[in-house]
Design goal:
single chain, 13 helices, alpha/beta, 33% helix, seven-stranded parallel beta sheet, seven-stranded mixed beta sheet
């Protein structure tokens, strides 16, 4: 059987990890506007293509000869990318985490006969898949997701490094956090309701409300659902100072006759501080709690992930945990293991135990291990 042709749109840290994972099995091409990003792949044998994917005509022409398209672009480009690729009748697995609701493209995807899997990273992504699995087997009453990716070395002033677009990270600090309480949608400001949590191998981290439930709010009828981001203790205060001062604002201000969005300047200044330098190590930690009734009895499942930088391949943990969830889904689509047409949030993958076990084992083979405790 001929190898399928895979296009990875975006050659950043996660896109590169995705390409490297798929390269032994598929014909992979990474497409990016940045020659610097593509240059890092030159010695890997992975094909690259320099193109401006913000131009619709270029985007559609570029993906035309591929079987499956992977979206690893900044969130601001994600929704339009999915829309254009659907029009080219190509299957899509996306990790852009666009601010728009991808389910609005479900009708277009069905009419064009394509499979679109969105938000297929670690969280959103793997947390949804785990919940989808349990929700198919039990009556879930409570779902909690705590997740964070951090550098091992706590370096002043931010004690944080990012593998994603700085603008996308800043969105976490300003977008209101939606969660479900007593069966009703509740909205709180980002960075609210802080709590301290202890994790083996790391110690104490700080958790705060973030808007990570996304599709679960509509697809799951569960009385309580909440998602929180994890950072080193103390981060909330300085993030609030920056936010309240206006450094994260999208509203343009005039400086010496020049109109500029404060968030653009902030992102430009933060990126050098947040960029992972060669040899720097990170870790990903996630705790998923699923509680409810199974076969008439109370049941609680606690899933824990602790993953760290892979020194043998030089792959960052957040790129591994996000990227390999995505590549597991790509393998399912490529092998017709998942054939649903339309837009599928990741919880739909978890509803089939065969797909769920495939993803868990796929990650385990790459040493991304989710341990579960039952009580």
């Amino acid at each position: 059987m001929d190898k399928k042709n895979i296009a990875v749109l975006g050659g950043g840290l996660v896109g590169s990890a995705i390409a490297a994972d798929l390269h032994p099995v598929f014909n992979v091409t990474v497409i990016d506007i940045s020659k610097r990003s593509l240059g890092k792949l030159q010695d890997s044998g992975i094909r690259t293509l320099n193109a401006d994917l913000s131009d619709n005509e270029t985007l559609r022409r570029t993906v035309r000869d591929f079987d499956i398209v992977i979206g690893a672009l900044p969130g601001s480009m994600g929704y339009n990318m999915i829309k254009q690729v659907i029009m080219e009748r190509k299957d899509v697995v996306d990790i852009s985490f666009c601010p728009e609701d991808p389910m609005e493209l479900d009708k277009d995807a069905r009419e064009n006969g394509v499979t679109v899997i969105t938000d297929c990273g670690v969280a959103p992504g793997m947390g949804n898949i785990i919940l989808g699995y349990h929700n198919s087997l039990m009556e879930v009453k409570n779902y909690e997701c705590y997740v964070g990716g951090l550098p091992f070395v706590r370096e002043w002033p931010y004690e944080y490094k990012a593998v994603f677009s700085p603008i996308d990270v800043i969105e976490e600090y300003i977008r209101p956090a939606r969660y479900v309480e007593n069966g009703k949608l509740t909205v709180r400001e980002a960075l609210s309701d802080p709590e301290l949590m202890f994790f083996d191998n790391i110690g104490t981290l700080e958790a705060w409300n973030s808007d990570g439930l996304r599709s679960l709010i509509k697809t799951m009828k569960i009385p309580r659902m909440i998602e929180k981001t994890l950072r080193y203790p103390g981060c909330i205060e300085y993030l609030k100072v920056l936010r309240e001062t206006g450094f994260f604002s999208n509203e343009p201000v005039e400086v010496n006759g020049v109109s500029i969005r404060p968030v653009d300047l902030t992102a430009k200044l933060l990126f050098p501080k947040w960029e992972m330098k060669p040899g720097e190590e990170d870790f990903t930690v996630m705790r998923i709690i699923v509680e409810g009734k199974e076969k008439g009895k109370k049941k609680k499942y606690t899933w824990n992930l602790f993953d760290r930088y892979d020194g043998s391949s030089g792959t960052l943990s957040m790129a591994r945990t996000t990227g390999f969830t995505c590549t597991a889904a790509v393998n399912l689509v490529a092998s017709s293991g998942y054939r649903e047409k339309g837009v599928s949030p990741p919880e739909y993958l978890g509803r089939d135990s065969r797909n769920f076990n495939f993803i868990i084992n796929y990650l385990k083979e790459r040493n991304v291990i989710y341990n579960v405790e039952e009580s």
